[in-house]
Amino acid sequence: ETAARALDEDIGSGDVTTNACVPANAKATGTFFARQDLVLAEGERRELSVLLPGAFRRLRGRVVAGDAGLPIRGATVRLEISSPRLPKTTSLRDTDADGTFDFGAVFGGVADLSVSAPDRARWHRREQALDAVPDPLQIVLDPGSPVTVKVVDADGKAVKGASVYAADRFG
């Protein structure tokens, strides 16, 4: 039961692999089919592969700078999956020092993918079929430019409290 709870929790958050702590001589139980029983001795570790039924696939990739091709650390990758079979879900991952991110196993539906990083233009793909996304996905972020806006009236005087709305190149 311990392993089943750990697997349920980890798979739900998008991980492909998991480390489950199972007491010595315990058997994993739950609603799954096993090719063989797995019994671990105290302190023993084994890799456990889980085959997910349905249209799951791994979504991972790398974010690089368009001007230099170097990895971008700390970029935020946003994944919004919509499917007729599951509620809409949103997941976020930050890139590591190599610019890589990994969502693990995701349900293969349609997704909105976007990536943002300081001083970089945002990258966005709407209604992307996940089964058409290359593995790993390479995302290039172009340099961004800060925008300064001053709202003035007909006489050229600053308007206090004015609201300014901007749309990026994706609408």
Q: Would you kindly provide a written description of the structure presented here, covering whatever features stand out?
A:
The structure is a single chain. The chain is elongated and about 80 Å long. The protein is mainly beta and 171 residues long. A 4-stranded antiparallel β-sheet has the order 3-2-5-6, with no helix packed on it. The model is unreliable at 1-33 (pLDDT under 50). It has one helix spanning 2-12; strands at 56-65, 76-82, 89-94, 100-107, 110-116, 123-129, 137-141. A hairpin with a 6-residue loop joins strand 2 (76-82) and strand 3. The chain contains 1 helix and 7 strands, in the order H-E-E-E-E-E-E-E. Helices cover 6% and strands 29% of the residues.
Largest sheet: 4 strands, antiparallel
Q: Which word captures the global form?
A: elongated
Q: Total number of β-strand segments?
A: 7
Widest sheet: strand order?
3-2-5-6
What's the helix and strand layout?
Elements: H1 2-12, E1 56-65, E2 76-82, E3 89-94, E4 100-107, E5 110-116, E6 123-129, E7 137-141
Parallel strand pairs: 1-7
Antiparallel strand pairs: 1-4, 2-3, 2-5, 5-6
Entry keywords:
29% strand, disordered N terminus, 7 strands, three-stranded mixed beta sheet, 1 helix, mainly beta, 171 residues, four-stranded antiparallel beta sheet, elongated
Short recap of the structure:
With 171 residues, this protein is mostly beta strands. It has one helix at 2-12, and strands at residues 56-65, 76-82, 89-94, 100-107, 110-116, 123-129, 137-141.
